[in-house]
Amino acid sequence: MGEECVFCEIIAGKIPSDIVYQDDKAVVIRDINPQAPIHLLVMPREHIPSLAQIGSDRKDLIGHLIYVANEMASREGLVQRGYRVSVNYGREGGQLVPHIHFHLLGGRQLSGALG
After folding, report:
1. What confidence score (pLDDT) does residue 38 get?
2. Which of 78, 88, 94, 5 is closest to 52 using CA atoms?
3. Closest Cα to residue 25, out of 90, 71, 73?
4. Contact between 89 and 95 (Cβ < 8 Å)
5. Is 47 a catalytic residue?
6. Where are the domains of the chain?
7. How far apart are the C-alpha atoms of 48 and 57, rounded to whole Å?
8. Can you tell me the distance from the alpha carbon of 44 to that of 97, in angstroms, rounded to the nearest whole number?
9. What would the DSSP string read from start to end of 45-98?
10. What pLDDT shows up at residue 111?
11. CA 29: distance to chain centroid?
12. Does domain 6-106 have CATH number 3.30.428.10?
């Protein structure tokens, strides 16, 4: 567990959160400061500080997190209209919590399309 990591505390059940999915590798919660009508955070149970710590030994875990994000998009009814999955890295990239996590956003037209 990461030292003073809020997501590790949520995963351990020490901080209450709206957990919408969990399995042996991942936990999904509703963001407490949503940027869209549906804003979920998909995170690994394992403490990994950032995207920079992802090596070839963790490819399966990252694939699983993306799979879970897609499953949650389906459960939340986002597949027909579309959704965004993103990950922030570092201070300038907007990463606020040092525990890798994917944002699943949808439920409205999202601005800032990249392509």
Report:
1. 97
2. 88
3. 71
4. yes
5. no
6. 6-106
7. 12
8. 13
9. SS----GGG--GGGHHHHHHHHHHHHHHHHHTT-TTT-EEEE---TTTTT--SS
10. 85
11. 8
12. yes
Q: What's the CA gap between 11 and 22, in Å, rounded? A: 9
Q: Give the integer Cα–Cα distance in Å for 82 and 98.
A: 28
The whole-angstrom separation of Cα 115 and Cα 93 is 18
11: helix, strand or coil: helix
Contact status, residue 9 vs residue 15, Cβ threshold 8 Å:
yes
Q: What is the pLDDT of residue 74?
A: 97
Each residue's pLDDT expressed in tens, for the chain with a length of 115 residues: 556 899 999 999 999 999 999 999 999 999 999 999 999 999 999 999 999 999 999 999 999 999 999 999 999 999 999 999 999 999 899 999 999 999 999 999 998 765 5
Rounded to whole angstroms, how far apart are CA atoms 62 and 73? 17
Residue of 39, 99, 101, 103 marked catalytic: 101
